[in-house]
Amino acid sequence: MGNGGEIGIIGLAVMGQNLALNFARHGFRVCVYNRTAERTEAFLRDRVREEPITPAYTLEEFVRCLEHPRRILLMVQAGSAVDQVIEALLPLLEPGDLVMDGGNSHYTDTERRMQRLAAHGIQFLGVGISGGEKGALLGPSIMPGGSPEAYGMVEGMLTRIAARSEEGPCCAYMGRGGAGHYVKMVHNAIEYAFMQGIAEAYDFMKTALGMSIEAIAETFERWNEGTLNAFLTELAARVLRYRDPESGDPLVERILDRAEQKGTGRWAAQSALELGVPTPTLTAAVFARTISHFKADRERIGATFPWPDRHTGPFSGEILSDLEAALNVVVLAAFSQGLWLLSEASRAYNYGTDRAEVLRVWRAGCIIRARWLGFLREVVREDPEDPHLLFSARFRAELQRRLPAAGRILQWAFEAGIPMPALSTAVDYVLAMRRSRLPANLIQAQRDAFGAHTYERIDRPGVFHTEWMD
Ligand SMILES: NC(=O)c1ccc[n+]([C@@H]2O[C@H](COP(=O)([O-])OP(=O)(O)OC[C@H]3O[C@@H](n4cnc5c(N)ncnc54)[C@H](OP(=O)(O)O)[C@@H]3O)[C@@H](O)[C@H]2O)c1
């Protein structure tokens, strides 16, 4: 179709604008539309220079602007806005066109929308995009899911604008149905856990060790040179170093201690509960944010609940390397749980997700990019069908050598009154998964005693019930 737009973007908030510029700077002709015309005008005025970007001010104009088959990326607010835009677009589209949702949509919504559009012969991809506004402009990590044919229509374009690592472009087919948004949801859940682990380490250094913010920033910088090399480790140091222009103090110390969340972490926890996959560290990070919200309650309870709050030591000189090891345990446990969840979801929902590809796509561009990913990919590739990283001797060895240090940190944290939910669930998870016999036998006995729920025996097959009270 010659000079028509090769891709259309609907929604010109920060993500849509930056993705439009990214596509255009890679030479693709882009058509853009935003519900509110002023936003489109401001985008063209303030940010578009030589880039091949054509504005449209009605949806009719927008679809006319695009070559056939049309390829349209929605970057509107997740939720009902996506449905509203799809319904408005539907009468204007033709069979063979492709719609992509690049927002943080719930995977079940994606599957519903896919079916709705399929009934009209229109392809639909749920595309997870990570990297924030900077990533959108300079190279995000892209997680598309849907039919392989639909992915084939945009593979060349998406891989061009994606971040690159030494293992190739950070975009790959994540599987059928809502797989793309499912993978993005698990990415975000791991992000929650990683951030919670970092926050706990900061709290420990500040509260238990009485370290200055500068010294804590320096410690994160040092850790960023080693196994904890990761975007989030580096970001923690940067944020800690930033000074409030007014007071000259570290800005982070002036920020209210209430963490917000937009829902992807909670969705992952809900999905894990539904699928019966244990993700205690991912879930603990969600609850930690929830608890942070109860600031007034915490103040009220804390006022009459004395605890040391500051540890006086003596600490061994190794304490910071213990803490570094402990944060590694959190990160490894979070990936282990996230990848187990992905494996079960892929089986239950027939996604066909290749977790080695997921780890490759997370190597650069996204928020959880980290040095560990290369190692984790090797572990997954050793046995791609295996749901557990913990079945790998190499993976177990990495955890085992750090577990004693993690245990020491937890002991000190308890004495200093520092909650470390990410670390304690990570340690518990590993301890439980290495334990061939758990006390669940007593739970089964009690369930049978009060509710005749029956139990199995270890010394003979069958299902048993006992009249315990006789
Ligand atoms: N921000 C990030 O770092 C980031 C990272 C990864 C993924 N995401 C996801 O990417 C998507 C876009 O994020 P964002 O931060 O750029 O924007 P956003 O604030 O989530 O959404 C604002 C955009 O949605 C449009 N919109 C809202 N309701 C609409 C409706 N009923 N009909 C048509 N358009 C509607 C707005 O148009 P108007 O101008 O007319 O209001 C505006 O263009 C979201 O799903 C977000 O979760 C964001």
Task: Give the structure's gist in a few sentences.
The protein is an alpha/beta fold and 470 residues long. The protein has helices at residues 14-25, 37-46, 59-65, 80-89, 107-118, 132-138, 148-161, 179-208, 213-223, 231-241, 264-275, 280-292, 295-303, 319-349, 355-361, 372-382, 393-400, 403-415, 421-433, 440-451; strands spanning 7-10, 30-33, 53-56, 71-74, 98-101, 123-130, 141-146, 164-165, 168-169.
* Count of β-strands: 9
Question: Can you write the helix and strand succession as a string?
Answer: EHEHEHEHEHEHEHEEHHHHHHHHHHHHH
Structural class: alpha/beta
Strand order of the largest sheet: 3-2-1-4-5-6-7
Total of DSSP H or I helical runs spanning 4+ residues = 20
Shape: globular
Q: Approximately what portion of the residues adopt beta-strand conformation? A: 5-15%
What is the subunit arrangement here? single chain
Enter the CATH topology name of the largest domain.
Answer: N-(1-d-carboxylethyl)-l-norvaline Dehydrogenase, domain 2
Which cofactor or ligand species appear? NADP nicotinamide-adenine-dinucleotide phosphate
Provide structural commentary.
Helix content is 54%, strand content 8%. It has 470 residues and is an alpha/beta fold. It folds into three domains: 7-177, NAD(P)-binding Rossmann-like Domain (Rossmann fold); 184-433, N-(1-d-carboxylethyl)-l-norvaline Dehydrogenase, domain 2; 440-470, Single alpha-helices involved in coiled-coils or other helix-helix interfaces. The strands form two sheets. A seven-stranded mixed sheet has the order 3-2-1-4-5-6-7, sandwiched between helices. Strands 8-9 form a two-stranded antiparallel ribbon. Strand 8 and strand 9 (168-169) form a beta hairpin. Helix 1 runs parallel beside helix 6 (132-138), helix 14 crosses helix 18 and helix 14 packs across helix 19. The longest helix is centred in the last third of the chain and has 31 residues, at 319-349. It is globular, with a radius of gyration of 25 Å. The protein starts with 6 loop residues before the first strand and ends in a 19-residue tail after the last helix. NADP nicotinamide-adenine-dinucleotide phosphate is lined by residues 11-16, 34-36, 39, 75-78, 81, 84-85, 103-104, 129-130, 132-133.
